[in-house]
User: What shape does this take?
Amino acid sequence: MKTAGYLFRKWFVTAALAVLVGVVAVAGQAFAATPLVDVAWVKANAGKPGVVMVDARAQVDYLRGHIPGAVHTDYEKSGWRVKVDGVPGMLPPDTGKLAKLIGDLGIDNATHVVVIAPGNNSTDMGVATRIYWTFKVLGHDNVSILNGGMHAYLAEVDKQGKPLNPLDKGAPKVEPKTFKVSLRKEMLPTRDDVKAAMDKGVVLVDNRPSDQYLGVNRTPVAAANGTIPHALNMPQGWLTENGGGTFRSKEEIAKLYKAAGVPTSGKQISFCNTGHWASVGWFASSEILGNKDVELYDGSMADWTHAKMPVEVKIQAK
Assistant: This one.
C-alpha cells in the first residue's frame, strides 16, 4: 500500500517537472526567430544572452538614443552592399568581409539577430528586410525584424511626449565573435537565371512604384525605362500600413496580391532597381505569406539595363 509520503513525493516531482517543461517552453518561445517581432518582445528580450539588436539607423540617431544593448551598423557604408562591375547595391562577392562585419557586431551562428530600421516608411523598412535577406543568404535563419522599426519603439510616450521605453546613449563595447558563412547560392539568381525564367513564363514581380514599372519614369541607376518583359507589379509601398513602417497582416497582403494579379505561391522572382525595394517584396512574399519559392534578383534593373537586356515600356512618355 502506497503511503501518503510516497504519494506526496510523486506529486511534487510531477509538479516540478511540469514547471520545468513550462519554463523551457517559454524560453523557447522567447528566442524563436519569427520574421517579425513587436515592441513588447524587444523590451522583454533586449540585453538577454544570445540576442543582439542591430540598429541600422543613421549613426547620429543611434548615438542620441537606442534600445539598451543595441549595436550599430551603417547600411550604406559598413559593407552590406557594394558596387560590382558597375552595378551598385550588390551583395559583396567576398562573403568573408560580410562574416567579419557580422562577427564584429558580436554575432555568431547561435545569435538571434533582431534588425532595427528607422521605421518611418516602407522604403526605410527595406534597410531591415535587405539585411534580413542577407543573413538568410549567408545561411543564418535566427533573424527577425522589429515591426514598425524604431519609430514604433519611440511612439510610446507619456503626457509630456517623452519616450516611455528605455533608451541608452553612446555606443556600447562589443566583444567580437566568429560568424561562419554557409552560402545559399540558390537564393541568388543571376541575370541569366532571370532571362531563363522570363523565357519559361516564371512569374517576375517588379516591386517598384507603378510609374517606374510602366516606364513613365526611372531612377539614374537604371539605364533604360520600363520593366522586365511580362513582369507583374506589386509596389512595395502597398505592403506596409499606409506606406509606413508597420507591415500589413498576412490576410491584407494576400488581398493586395490578388488585386495586383500576383500569385501568392509558386516560383517567382522579385526585383526593383538595386534589390532594396525588392527585399520588401521578397520578405512579404517569403516570410509573411510563406511562399518559399520566391527569390530576389540582387542586381535588379540596374544590372538588367546595364547589360542592355530587353525591357517592356507600357507607357511612352518624355
Summary: DSSP finds eleven helices and eleven strands in the chain. The chain has two domains: 33-154, 189-306.
